[in-house]
């Protein structure tokens, strides 16, 4: 007979004693359960004890999380978090350096538990740690040189404990002194510093900047780009990642230009408007250093580094938002001069009329004619073409850049189209405006970076004016595609759709340079796009005749069952999920997989990302499928309703799902990508006997149905299909016939 639903069977350990097997009644108060355990081992003062998980997490059991205890869990009887916090608070102030070091090591480990963290913080533990960092650093370093090498770990454990305690969000970042900020900044500014100390110092600075505007101002006065660059030139990718994360944080929190900030007094300080900061980044050659020492380094780029490069890419492109949303003022002479410059570069060879009687009318007539050749919609006053936002003045900036830096190509495009018949000319002005708008949409200019995206493009780190160069390549592509399509003005939108497809397909290949991107586009001519479209249409062909529809209806359940089995098999293999919080993306993981009999979900925390499948026995927590009440997604998830930065992020919202079980219990997920999100939501719905409704299921169903129908419609008359597959032939005696095409 199965145990009651409110009872769980566990094992409880106590040092020096045999473990106890015990049934815990979840309706009973936790203090009563602890008293019962203590009485079994004849331990007095049960209020000084607590239960914690015996796995690597060592998390305390509380009234809030006790429902997470599952059958078969191994627990440990230990001192209460309050008593443990009090003891550690005293031990880290010990006069013995060895005792202090051991205490700090224990504190760094225990601080991950929010229950212990709350007790330690209540003892003003954060203040004690900051005082130790401010006043004790020099003493630690002297002792490291004079006595034992292990004293170098003391500061590292102190900073680790501080980071873990602050990650719980219990204490405000605004409470820290300037002296503490200066000390942390000094660890980053020193040329020779222990790797673990440097890593934690960078993490602290990033959190300060992201969580407090006042601290941003103070950190910006202590840290300069010049002092951060040496860390990018090293070989440790984790240090490089944290360094770029600090730069991104400073970039993200930099005030806009409307704030009057004096920059002249300190040229390299990051307390300045966004555009000024961008100029400083350019002066320090940050882009080329990242390209050389990170992107083109002889090692793979991990997910966290890819994310930080993506964030830097987004923030850099977001500098264009101001120009993108600025309308042209037709009365502004400086802005009008840019249009005059475009005309001058294109038609400079043409003679100017003399300043004689009536020349003003001739000049106006000539300008109108030239503006028409340049492809503006408003021939009389082309400034009116730039009053729509987006792309606003950004389009005019791109046109001028193209005219000045690619003058031959610019003149060729303008003159080519001005000499064509009207119906086949490609309007350069209108094309440039629409193309700029399209490129801004593709690169999501003006949107905040996603918390989970790793989609950076190496080619944008190869040039200081990468967006302008990107535009120059694409405007030449547009002109080429226009000619290949023999388009007229009525086909303008069709041409833009083809160009967008060409650009998107080329970007998906992640070209390493702008030249490589240009080469990819050369292979994606209009003819090639038509072939790709035709191929995709054939693959997705949907026969509408009645016999075919009946056949589809007959075989669809079989295909759906095949998809269901694939989804369940993927759940059995399991997936590694990343833990996220509002401070930053952490290298903390947890794994979840379905048991082979499809009856239990096994899950648990991991120290690092696994290389393959994680065995069931290493995952401590279990959730019977029978206990699952519902699966919710997106904004209906409990962890998406909480206050925090993730709530506002659309991409994270689209990857979130939760399993609801028992009463007010849930298992919260954020999938690593859209594919895994579809796999898991489909698989969980299949386990609950519900329909699989994801986009991936629809695509798989369409593809497999199409393949199955085509196979069944093959002309196989008088062709005998064997029941068993043909045998694999023996290997040849030699491979002399192989020709290496390379």
Automatic annotation (TrEMBL):
<feature type="domain" description="ELMO">
    <location>
        <begin position="334"/>
        <end position="507"/>
    </location>
</feature>
<dbReference type="Pfam" id="PF11841">
    <property type="entry name" value="ELMO_ARM"/>
</dbReference>
<dbReference type="InterPro" id="IPR024574">
    <property type="entry name" value="ELMO_ARM"/>
</dbReference>
<dbReference type="Pfam" id="PF16457">
    <property type="entry name" value="PH_12"/>
</dbReference>
<dbReference type="InterPro" id="IPR011989">
    <property type="entry name" value="ARM-like"/>
</dbReference>
<dbReference type="GO" id="GO:0016601">
    <property type="term" value="P:Rac protein signal transduction"/>
</dbReference>
<dbReference type="GO" id="GO:0032045">
    <property type="term" value="C:guanyl-nucleotide exchange factor complex"/>
</dbReference>
<dbReference type="GO" id="GO:0005886">
    <property type="term" value="C:plasma membrane"/>
</dbReference>
<dbReference type="InterPro" id="IPR001849">
    <property type="entry name" value="PH_domain"/>
</dbReference>
<dbReference type="InterPro" id="IPR006816">
    <property type="entry name" value="ELMO_dom"/>
</dbReference>
<keyword id="KW-0963">Cytoplasm</keyword>
<dbReference type="Pfam" id="PF04727">
    <property type="entry name" value="ELMO_CED12"/>
</dbReference>
<keyword id="KW-0729">SH3-binding</keyword>
<keyword id="KW-0472">Membrane</keyword>
<dbReference type="InterPro" id="IPR050868">
    <property type="entry name" value="ELMO_domain-containing"/>
</dbReference>
<keyword id="KW-0597">Phosphoprotein</keyword>
<dbReference type="GO" id="GO:0005085">
    <property type="term" value="F:guanyl-nucleotide exchange factor activity"/>
</dbReference>
<dbReference type="GO" id="GO:0006915">
    <property type="term" value="P:apoptotic process"/>
</dbReference>
<comment type="function">
    <text>Involved in cytoskeletal rearrangements required for phagocytosis of apoptotic cells and cell motility. Acts in association with DOCK1 and CRK. Was initially proposed to be required in complex with DOCK1 to activate Rac Rho small GTPases. May enhance the guanine nucleotide exchange factor (GEF) activity of DOCK1.</text>
</comment>
<dbReference type="GO" id="GO:0048870">
    <property type="term" value="P:cell motility"/>
</dbReference>
<protein>
    <submittedName>
        <fullName>Engulfment and cell motility 1</fullName>
    </submittedName>
</protein>
<keyword id="KW-0053">Apoptosis</keyword>
<keyword id="KW-0581">Phagocytosis</keyword>
<dbReference type="InterPro" id="IPR016024">
    <property type="entry name" value="ARM-type_fold"/>
</dbReference>
<dbReference type="GO" id="GO:0017124">
    <property type="term" value="F:SH3 domain binding"/>
</dbReference>
<dbReference type="GO" id="GO:0007015">
    <property type="term" value="P:actin filament organization"/>
</dbReference>
<dbReference type="InterPro" id="IPR011993">
    <property type="entry name" value="PH-like_dom_sf"/>
</dbReference>
<dbReference type="GO" id="GO:0005737">
    <property type="term" value="C:cytoplasm"/>
</dbReference>
<dbReference type="GO" id="GO:0006911">
    <property type="term" value="P:phagocytosis, engulfment"/>
</dbReference>
């Amino acid at each position: 007979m199965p145990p009651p639903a409110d009872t769980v069977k566990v094992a409880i350990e106590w040092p020096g004693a045999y473990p106890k097997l015990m049934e815990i009644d979840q309706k009973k108060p936790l203090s009563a359960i602890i008293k019962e355990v203590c009485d079994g081992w004849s331990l007095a003062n049960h209020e000084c004890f607590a239960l914690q998980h015996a796995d690597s997490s060592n998390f305390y059991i509380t009234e809030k999380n006790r429902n997470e205890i599952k059958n078969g869990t191994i627990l440990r009887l230990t001192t209460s978090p309050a008593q443990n916090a009090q003891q550690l608070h005293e031990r880290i102030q010990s006069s013995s350096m060895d005792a202090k070091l051991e205490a700090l090591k224990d504190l760094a480990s225990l601080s991950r538990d929010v229950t212990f963290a709350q007790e330690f913080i209540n003892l003003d533990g954060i203040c004690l740690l900051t005082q130790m960092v401010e006043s004790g650093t020099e003493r630690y370093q002297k002792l490291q040189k004079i006595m034992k090498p292990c004293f170098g770990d003391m500061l590292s454990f102190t900073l680790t404990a501080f980071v873990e305690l602050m990650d719980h969000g219990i204490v405000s970042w605004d409470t820290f002194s300037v002296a503490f900020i200066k000390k942390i900044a000094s660890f980053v500014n020193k040329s020779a510093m222990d790797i673990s100390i440097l890593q934690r110092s960078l993490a602290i600075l990033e959190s300060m900047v992201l969580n407090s505007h006042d601290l941003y101002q103070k950190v910006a006065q202590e840290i300069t780009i010049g002092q951060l660059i040496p860390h990018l030139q090293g070989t440790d990718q984790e240090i490089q990642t944290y360094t770029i994360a600090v730069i991104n944080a400073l970039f993200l929190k930099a005030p806009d230009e409307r704030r009057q900030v004096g920059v002249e007094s300190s040229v390299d300080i990051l307390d300045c408007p966004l555009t000024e900061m961008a100029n400083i980044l350019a002066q320090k050659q940050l882009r080329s250093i990242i390209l050389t020492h990170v992107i083109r380094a002889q090692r793979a780029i991990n997910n966290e580094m890819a994310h930080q490069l993506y964030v830097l890419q987004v923030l850099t492109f977001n500098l264009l938002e101001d120009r993108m949303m600025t309308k042209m003022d037709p009365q502004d002479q400086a802005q009008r001069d840019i249009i005059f410059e475009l005309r001058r570069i294109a038609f400079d060879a043409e003679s100017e009329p003399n300043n004689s009687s009536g020349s003003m009318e001739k000049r106006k007539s000539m300008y109108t004619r030239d503006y028409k050749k340049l492809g503006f919609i408003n021939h009389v006053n082309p400034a009116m073409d730039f009053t729509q936002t987006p792309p606003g003045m950004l389009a005019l900036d791109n046109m001028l850049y193209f005219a000045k830096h690619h003058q031959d190509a610019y003149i060729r495009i303008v003159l080519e189209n001005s000499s064509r018949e009207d119906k086949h000319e490609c309007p350069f002005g209108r094309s440039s405006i629409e193309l700029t708008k399209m490129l801004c949409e593709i690169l999501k200019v003006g949107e905040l970076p996603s918390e989970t995206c790793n989609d950076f493009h190496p080619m944008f780190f190869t040039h200081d004016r990468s967006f302008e160069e990107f535009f120059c390549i694409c405007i030449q592509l547009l002109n080429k595609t226009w000619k290949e399509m023999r388009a007229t003005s009525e086909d303008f939108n069709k041409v833009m759709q083809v160009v967008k497809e060409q650009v998107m397909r080329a970007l998906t290949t992640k070209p390493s340079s702008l030249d490589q991107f240009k080469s990819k586009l050369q292979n994606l001519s209009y003819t090639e796009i038509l072939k790709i479209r035709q191929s995709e249409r054939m693959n997705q062909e949907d026969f509408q005749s009645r016999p075919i529809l009946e056949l589809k209806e007959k075989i669809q359940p079989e295909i759906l069952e095949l998809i269901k089995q694939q989804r369940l098999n993927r759940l059995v293999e399991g997936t590694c999920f990343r833990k996220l919080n509002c401070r930053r993306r952490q290298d903390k993981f947890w794994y979840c997989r379905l048991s082979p009999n499809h009856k239990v979900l096994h899950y648990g925390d991991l120290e690092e990302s696994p290389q393959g499948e994680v065995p069931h026995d290493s995952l401590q927590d279990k959730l019977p499928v029978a206990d699952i009440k519902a699966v919710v997604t997106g904004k209906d998830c409990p962890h998406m309703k909480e206050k925090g930065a993730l709530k506002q992020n659309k991409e994270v919202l689209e990857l979130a799902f939760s399993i609801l079980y028992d009463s007010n219990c849930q298992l919260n997920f954020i999938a690593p990508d859209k594919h895994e999100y579809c796999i898991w939501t489909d698989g969980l719905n299949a386990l609950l006997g519900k329909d699989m409704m994801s986009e991936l299921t629809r695509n798989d169903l369409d593809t497999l149905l199409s393949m199955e129908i085509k196979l069944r419609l093959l002309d196989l008359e008088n062709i005998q299909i064997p029941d068993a597959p043909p045998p694999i032939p023996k290997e040849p005696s030699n491979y002399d016939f192989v020709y290496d095409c390379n």
